[in-house]
TrEMBL record:
The name this protein goes by in its record: Purine and uridine phosphorylase
PROSITE patterns assigned: NACHT (PS50837)
Record bears the keyword Transit peptide: no
The organism of origin for this protein: Aspergillus sclerotiicarbonarius (strain CBS 121057 / IBT 28362)
Classification lineage: Eukaryota, Fungi, Dikarya, Ascomycota, Pezizomycotina
Gene3D superfamilies: Nucleoside phosphorylase domain, P-loop containing nucleotide triphosphate hydrolases
Length: 835
């Protein structure tokens, strides 16, 4: 088909293609074939890629070859040309998709459309054919003249017979025998030409000339020789397929090209090679005719194929990065979901809240101590650190966790060592959230969710329990931990305040599990505790934690600048302050902090000296410091929140405290103008209260503060139980709860969000009433005698902690006020209501 043949050029070293170069209708043309014997999308893609690399000025390609037609419209010797049709871009990859239920198959492999220069030329050529006819026969005659040896094969002869059999009629061989290599050669040739097939099963069709079809081509990686299968695929595409072939899908996604196929068979069992040469010739002739209607200038204006391919590649990379980012976001969200589900307490948040108050440079003595460095370097070692209250055990724990992270996590990849770091902060007030299975779940969460990908077993564990809102058993958690441990070379487990870990049974459970881990892996355990807890464990190393004098002085020097201006420049007073506090603190870091806090606000040197002279030591000093702090609180704004935090039956959130303080006796709803600012609440409490930055829980500055104020609660807060009980009953009597229990989980959770005190008031009002029944009878009766309010309170009271599906509807129905009073043991109120 070339009008002019050009000399061959030497190929680059990486290019193994064989090219034919020439001109056709003023266009320079590069012709390349697949290697002999190779077919399929992968081979086509490889050949095209090498060609574009060698000839970067190529604008577009024409994929010219043979294909199998889909009757009845398409016949042997016809030409099928790719054009977009019926929502498809022109070529579909028929073997790419997904199998679904009921034996259905959803197609997912649709490819790019041909270049616009080709599509517009096809429109022009189709119009020319309608008016003047095709030049294909003329080009075939030229072949016969120029290359007479090719004429018998490539120009149509009377020996080429177009017979299309019914789709359900399979090819027949000589006397029904299967063809073998032993059959006479003439028998095998006759078999291939359907000599023994029943011609009565052939479709009756009127003879016609060759036709050019425009539409959908299906591409795949396997030969189709089954008419039923052919029709099934065509039906899947809405009956729009004209032709099947095996290379186009390898190019159309990246390489700008058009596909031209001469039809040589019907993709059925009668398939033979008789029409292949002629089909190839008519396809090549059409390609030449197509180029005749494309102006060379139009080709020049078209972007180079290499540039298009790079643009597509860049676009794919951009999409891939976007998908990776989306997947990362989804993965992060799933990690967050799993972390919240596994662990009721966010230990990472606690670590952050504690360590942000770390005084740089302190604690170095601990990190340099032989017992710590030995634990750090010894497989399956246990370090037990004891210290009296207030010496800074929790801060030391936070420092160790940060040190482990800095020491190991940045060197893991380079050394190909996987090190796990797990930490738990035991908090007595949250013991209901720190049962042994809760602690195991937290260990599992920290180990599993630090993996690059979330382990499949963790996803399966979540899926098994999430829908039914159940919790994993202790055995399930233990098994998962043992499995995850295999992914680590070493795991450090740091547990703070073991003495605050619930009851003895819980403590023994978690210790037993951790010691078992040491038997199967390199697990290095570190505990902190008051001296009253000392587990029996062979080879356990002991280390006493105390407030190192250098650390205390370093802290004091960093804080002296925050005292009154009268201290500034007075080196004698500064030295006196530092020395006196160090002596009084006597190894208790907390006491040094409290004493420094007590000096703030002292505006004269005399007042500062007086405060220094009154400082005590040890537990007596702590009590004195807390008493002094309470005396500095001179407003109801501060004493009321302190009362709530000290006397509440569980840890409160900042939202709960703000709403609780806004409750006014005799009201039916909260006044939105009656809320205190959280920072004002905290700052007015003389450093006795803190708000955890991330968890937003509000608590006393230290466990010793909780101990002190609970011991002194009758002195400082004589009406606490009556006031809190009255606030809870007032809240439960709000109009919002008169409609009764929520009808579903979603509505119930919305109620908890909208009314932060509702959960606390419902669960604990009765406990606060127990010692003050007589003073709150009127409020209690108002609750008991209203069915809707009673129903609301009882639903929340009996909500299951497991939060299974429809959990809000699994509470006792028909509870009355007498039932509620009986539940809390309020005998006087029961008698009052019944009478």
């Amino acid at each position: 088909m070339l009008d002019q043949r050009h000399d061959d050029l030497a190929n680059p070293a990486h290019d193994h293609n064989a090219y034919t170069l020439g001109a056709m209708h003023k266009h320079n043309v590069v012709i390349v074939c697949l290697p002999k014997g190779e077919v399929g999308t992968n081979s086509a893609a490889a050949v095209a890629t090498r060609m574009i690399s060698t000839f970067p000025s190529i604008r577009f390609g024409l994929m010219v070859g043979i294909g199998g037609g889909v009757p009845p419209n398409v016949r042997l010797g016809d030409v099928v040309v790719i054009t977009p049709a019926n929502g498809f871009p022109g070529v579909v990859q028929w073997d790419m998709g997904k199998a679904e239920q009921m034996d259905t198959f959803t197609q997912t492999g649709a490819l790019n459309t041909p270049p616009s220069a080709v599509l517009t030329a096809l429109t022009k050529l189709e119009c020319k054919h309608d008016m003047e006819g095709s030049s294909i026969s003329q080009y075939l005659e030229e072949i016969a003249l120029k290359w007479p040896r090719l004429a018998p094969k490539y120009t149509r002869s009377e020996t080429l017979e177009d017979v299309c059999f019914e789709a359900n009629y399979n090819h027949a061989t000589n006397e029904g025998k299967k063809r073998t290599h032993e059959d006479p050669i003439e028998w095998r040739n006759e078999d291939a030409c359907c000599r023994f097939c029943d011609r009565s099963r052939a479709l009756k069709r009127q003879p016609r000339e060759m036709v050019v079809h425009y539409g959908l081509i299906a591409s795949g990686n396997q030969v189709i020789k089954d008419a039923t299968f052919r029709d099934k695929i065509n039906s899947r595409m809405g009956g729009n397929i004209l032709c099947f072939e095996m290379e186009a899908a390898g190019l159309m996604n990246n390489f700008p090209c058009a596909v031209i196929r001469g039809i040589c068979d019907y993709c059925d069992s009668h398939k033979n090679n008789g029409w292949q040469e002629h089909a190839a010739a008519v396809a090549a002739a059409f390609a030449k005719e197509l180029l005749s209607v494309i102006p060379p200038a139009r080709v020049t204006d078209t972007r180079a194929a290499a540039e298009v391919m790079k643009h597509i590649s860049d676009g794919v990379d951009l999409i891939r990065r976007g998908l990776f980012s989306l997947q990362s976001t989804q993965e992060d969200q799933h990690r967050k979901t799993l972390r919240c589900w596994l662990s009721p307490i966010d230990y990472e948040a606690i670590q952050g809240d504690i360590y942000r108050n770390y005084q740089p440079g302190t604690g170095k003595w601990f990190l340099d101590d032989f017992q710590f460095t030995h634990w750090l370097a010894t497989p399956s070692e246990t370090l037990f650190c004891t210290g009296i209250q207030g010496v800074g055990k929790t801060m030391m724990t936070a420092m160790v966790v940060d040190n482990l992270r800095a020491r190991f996590l940045h060197t893991i990849d380079s050394q190909h060592v996987k090190i796990g770091i797990v930490f738990l902060y035991c908090i007595y007030e949250r013991k209901n959230e720190q049962k042994s299975d809760d602690l195991l779940a937290s260990i599992l969460s920290q180990l599993a969710l630090e993996q690059e990908t979330i382990p499949k077993s963790i996803r399966e564990l979540y899926n098994r329990h999430h829908q039914g809102r159940t919790r994993p058993s202790k055995q399930e958690l233990s098994n998962e931990i043992h499995s995850i441990m295999e992914k680590y070379d070493t795991v450090f487990v740091v547990v703070d305040a073991l003495d605050e870990c619930g009851d003895d049974a819980t403590r023994q459970d978690i210790l037993c599990e951790l010691f078992q881990l040491q038997q199967i892996s390199d697990t290095r355990l570190m505990f902190t505790s008051r001296p009253n807890i000392l587990p029996e464990h062979d080879g356990m190393r002991l280390l006493t934690i105390y407030a190192n004098e250098k650390d205390v002085r370093r802290y004091l020097r960093s804080q002296i600048g925050h005292l009154s201006k009268v201290v500034e420049g007075d080196e004698v007073l500064q030295h006196k302050t530092e020395t006196r506090i160090v002596e009084s603190a006597n190894g208790i870091f907390l006491l040094a902090q409290l004493y420094m806090s007590s000096l703030r606000g002292k505006e004269t040197k005399k007042a500062i000296y007086r405060e220094l002279d009154q400082m005590g030591t040890g537990n007596e000093g702590l009590d004195q410091a807390y008493h002094s702090a309470y005396n500095r609180i001179d407003s109801e704004l501060a004493r009321s929140p302190l009362c709530w935090v000290v006397c509440a039956r569980r840890v409160l959130t900042a939202d709960e405290l703000q709403h609780a303080l806004a409750i006014e006796p005799g009201t039916r709803s909260l006044d939105p103008t009656n809320f205190y600012d959280l920072q004002e609440i905290v700052s007015s409490c003389a450093c006795l209260m803190v708000v955890d930055t991330i968890s937003k829980n509000i608590r006393l500055v230290h466990a010793t503060a909780k101990d002190y104020f609970q011991r002194k609660s009758l002195d400082y807060f004589p009406d606490a139980q009556k006031n809190i009980a009255a606030s809870c009953l007032t809240y439960l009597g709000y109009a919002a709860f008169e409609h009764g229990a929520c009808p579903n989980d979603e509505t119930f959770e919305e109620r908890l969000q909208q009314f932060p005190v509702f959960d606390y008031a419902s669960r604990y009002w009765g406990h606060h009433c127990r010692d003050v029944e007589g003073s709150i009878q009127t409020l209690a009766t108002a609750l008991f005698l209203h069915k809707g309010r009673t129903s609301s309170a009882s639903q929340c009271l009996f909500i299951s902690e497991s939060r299974r599906f429809s959990y809000s509807q699994r509470t006792p129905m028909g509870f009355t006020g007498v039932h509620l009073a009986s539940y809390f043991g309020l005998h006087n109120i029961i008698a009052y209501v019944i009478i």
